[in-house]
Amino acid sequence: MKAVVITKPGRPEVLVVDERSVPVVQDDEVLIRVYAAGVNRPDVFQRKGNYPPPPGAPQDIPGLEVAGIIETCGASVENWKPGDAVCALLAGGGYAEYAVVHAHHCLPVPVHFSFAEAASLPETVFTVWHNVFQRGALKNGEHFLVHGGSSGIGITAIQLAKALGAKVFATAGSDDKCEACISLGADLCVNYKNENFEEVLKSQGADVILDMIGGDYIPKNIRLLRIDGRLVFINTMKGNKVRQVEGQPLDEVDFGLIMKNRLTITGSTLRNRDVGFKAALTREILENVWPLMNEGKFKPVIFREFPLPEAAKAHELMESSDHIGKIILTNAW
Ligand SMILES: NC(=O)c1ccc[n+]([C@@H]2O[C@H](COP(=O)([O-])OP(=O)(O)OC[C@H]3O[C@@H](n4cnc5c(N)ncnc54)[C@H](OP(=O)(O)O)[C@@H]3O)[C@@H](O)[C@H]2O)c1
């Protein structure tokens, strides 16, 4: 089969098409003929050599989510049959003609969704469901803030939080991105390049914050949390440590606020979680999120599609951060 492989750590050009054997299904796995694969920021980190795949996952083929048709089922698979249209969460290997995945990590393609739309869902929906609703325990009527509101994660978090009854705030790096966040249901979006999000939001505060930025956002997030607030990290793109912003005094974290306001600080990474955890998450998502998809209450946002051999261009676009929503690769080899 054809696959896009990472030849060595580096710039987008290290992604090239190569020939690989079609993966063989284990008893509890299915083989999917890939029609579309989602691009996620972790794929960029993997390409640069900063996010190694877990043991057992394809080591040089990136791709954490796909949609397509089941070609073969392992001997003990009972919930799918060849010909079923599915989307799936992978630990890697999505940028290829075929991918294998545990049968319990697949979901049906939602009603009226294209393969490209279905491929845009698994990585962000699984990440948001676990971090915002399980770990962050966001409830109806609470205030929710997501940084990077126009990212693949952001557009998913805004829509799910809104659909489940939260008041939603976002931050993003341009007025166009803020408009997109509002059109998806955010009640307020702060263009962080023009305004200090802490100043804008401090009168309202947040019960749950989903942060992928870290760095100088850490003390601001902690001050913004309301009583019993939860801060959930899924990345720290501006650094794991609180940093001094040039020209400003160091903004230290006040740990006293954690006691005074009974705060919880947590976070997680999805890719290295075990098969059972991901299967349980799949079941919960099928029950709680898939009805929203099937009823048209969640809008996939695809910024641009590229044929799989042009994966390098897709990564360049992602690194420019000019996109709003998801970038998808299609099986036009
Ligand atoms: N923990 C997990 O399990 C997990 C799973 C999936 C994704 N993630 C993380 O979630 C984040 C979003 O992923 P995604 O695939 O949705 O990414 P994406 O679509 O590429 O979005 C990232 C956005 O972050 C914003 N940003 C702000 N500061 C940035 C900085 N210093 N460097 C780069 N971007 C910055 C950019 O928008 P602005 O113009 O608004 O700045 C950019 O568009 C990533 O950090 C990813 O690693 C974590």
Summarize the structure.
This protein is an alpha/beta fold and 333 residues long. The protein has helices spanning 41-47, 115-119, 122-135, 152-163, 175-183, 197-201, 217-224, 256-260, 275-288, 290-294, 311-320; strands at 2-6, 15-19, 29-39, 65-73, 85-89, 98-102, 106-108, 143-146, 167-172, 188-191, 206-211, 225-233, 264-267, 302-307, 326-330. Strands 3, 4, 5, 6, 7, 14 and 15 form a 7-stranded mixed β-sheet that branches. The chain has a 6-stranded parallel β-sheet with strand order 10-9-8-11-12-13, with helices on both faces.
Which CATH first-tier class of the largest domain would you pick?
Alpha Beta
H/E element sequence = EEEHEEEEHHEHEHEHEHEHEHHEHE
Question: What is the multimeric organization of the chains shown?
Answer: single chain
Low-confidence stretches: none
Helix-strand makeup class: alpha/beta
Q: How many E-type strands?
A: 15
Please summarize the sheet with the most strands. 7 strands, mixed
How much strand content do the residues show? 25-35%
End-to-end separation: 11 Å
Helix content: 25-40%
Radius of gyration: 20 Å
What integer is the average pLDDT? 97
The distinct bound ligands, ions and cofactors come out as: NADP nicotinamide-adenine-dinucleotide phosphate
User: How many structural units, i.e. domains?
Assistant: 2
In CATH terms, what is the architecture of the largest domain?
Answer: Alpha-Beta Complex
